[in-house]
Amino acid sequence: MKFFVDTADIAEITALVETGLLDGVTTNPSLIAKSGRNFLEVVKEIADIAHGPVSAEVVATDYATMLREAEVLRKLARNICIKLPLTMDGLRACKALSGEGTMTNVTLCFSANQALLAAKAGASFISPFIGRLDDISQDGMELIADIRLIYDNYEFKTEILAASVRHPAHVLAAAKIGADVATMPAAVIRALANHPLTDKGLEGFATDWAKSGQSIL
Ligand code: E4P
Question: Which residues act catalytically here (predicted)?
Fold first, then answer.
């Protein structure tokens, strides 16, 4: 499973790149606004730091303007993935961009039928929003499972990018179903490494080692 971080915070991205565990970055207009920085500048900086795909979202809602925005964004770096909303105009733009070899991520997916359309439009990634479905008492994980089944039935190459991931249990469930990628806040990636028994065990080893009076170096 690939791990993307869902942020526009350069410090967070840099720290994760250094671990060697990060496969890409996703942003959205809200995350860019939160960063307080210029959209194009921050996306370019992220793309220079990150090794994998960096999703940058168009803000237009009509086909023609989406394509014009995509043209500006994809010129920023080779690893830019154009993020498009799951609307008929967004799907049409996805088909056009995918057709000419541009990486695409269709976002704001809340149903399996929407995901089926994104695959037919040739999307590189489909982003079902798990957490936002859970927020309205629907089962986000059931959506991931339905999309996995449909994509496998027809051998679609579109990668399932589990999005709106809020906690490690989401990552575990999505991994068991076979989502190709999970995008999550940096805190969730770090939380995956935590276990109280790991902390307790480390403490015990340190105490016993101190008693031995030895050193490795
Ligand atoms: C994905 O690409 C989105 O940016 C993101 O996962 C949305 O998450 P949220 O529901 O926590 O805002």
Answer: 83
